[in-house]
Amino acid sequence: MKSAIIAGVFAATAAMGQTIKQSEPFFLKVTSSNLTIDGKFLYSCHAGAALQTLCLGSRDVPTTNVNSATFYLNTTVYEGKESDTGNLIWNLVLAPGADGSQQIVSEPLTFQYTPGSNVAITWFAPGYPTQPEVGFNNSALFVNSYPDDSHFTDTYPEQFTSTRISNWYACWVLAGSYYYNALSWVTAGAPHNPTCQSVSVIKVDVSA
Ligand SMILES: *[C@@H]1O[C@H](CO)[C@@H](O)[C@H](O)[C@H]1NC(C)=O
Ligand SMILES: *[C@@H]1O[C@H](CO)[C@@H](O)[C@H](O)[C@H]1NC(C)=O
Ligand SMILES: *[C@@H]1O[C@H](CO)[C@@H](O)[C@H](O)[C@H]1NC(C)=O
């Protein structure tokens, strides 16, 4: 009797499992105290085969069906509870197959680092292993930084904490072999790249 109940609970848990939930589509725009870049929308721009970074475009609200300006947040739902952080997604649309079918590759935002700089390029690439966990606080994009090592001592900590940081900058970067004014991430401290301008990244609902 007891084992039957346990088996039943186990089966229900396994069936519920962990699922991925994709948000409604949204646009992203930067806000900045620098009026040259304030209010510009972000567009996925070509940096190599199936590789993209996030370029600053115009201030005009993108038209609803512009794929390069359309992003999603993928969160996980586990036992009915949805996380408020996840992966920032852009869909790479491939050329239609011979049968005319449309194929997309769901690409999560990653950061591409350079050994000698604290400025990382925003990067969309298929099947990339390390993805920063991101979320929105009052529409402003943040990254979960874990662990927060700023209070580390020489003994094993009682707990590791994460912090929500928004070290976004618009910088001139080398993305693949392309030179773009693109959204960038500064790991810590002042940007090594002198062109970087501090920005916030704001979610704009497609229907808004
Ligand atoms: C994002 O979620 C959608 C819908 O569940 C899924 O098709 C897609 O593969 C997910 N992307 C990633 C990178 O996990
Ligand atoms: C504002 O950003 C532009 C474009 O990156 C740059 O040329 C300009 O120097 C910046 N202005 C200030 C006051 O930093
Ligand atoms: C969200 O942003 C507000 C400022 O807009 C800040 O006061 C608050 O601490 C943030 N909350 C989280 C959970 O990061």
Give the cofactors and ligands: 2-acetamido-2-deoxy-beta-D-glucopyranose
Strand content bin: over 45%
Shape: globular
Rounded to an integer, what's the Rg over CA atoms?
A: 20 Å
The strand count comes to: 15
Instruction: Please describe the biggest sheet, giving its number of strands, its sense, and whether it closes into a barrel.
Output: 11 strands, antiparallel
How does the helix and strand content classify structurally?
mainly beta
N- to C-terminal separation? 55 Å
Tell me the domain tally.
1
Helix percentage: under 10%
Number of helices: 1
Low-confidence stretches: 1-15
- What's the SSE pattern? HEEEEEEEEEEEEEEE
Average pLDDT rating:
90
InterPro entries: DUF7907
Protein name: DUF7907 domain-containing protein
Domain DUF7907: 23-203
Pfam families: DUF7907 (PF25484)
Task: Describe how the helices and strands are arranged.
Layout: H1 2-16, E1 18-22, E2 26-31, E3 42-48, E4 51-56, E5 72-78, E6 81-94, E7 103-112, E8 119-124, E9 134-137, E10 140-145, E11 163-165, E12 168-175, E13 178-186, E14 197-198, E15 200-205
Antiparallel strand pairs: 1-5, 2-15, 3-4, 5-6, 6-7, 6-9, 7-8, 8-13, 9-10, 10-11, 12-13, 12-14
Bound molecules: 2-acetamido-2-deoxy-beta-D-glucopyranose (NAG) (3 copies).
One 2-acetamido-2-deoxy-beta-D-glucopyranose is lined by residues 34, 36-37, 195, 197.
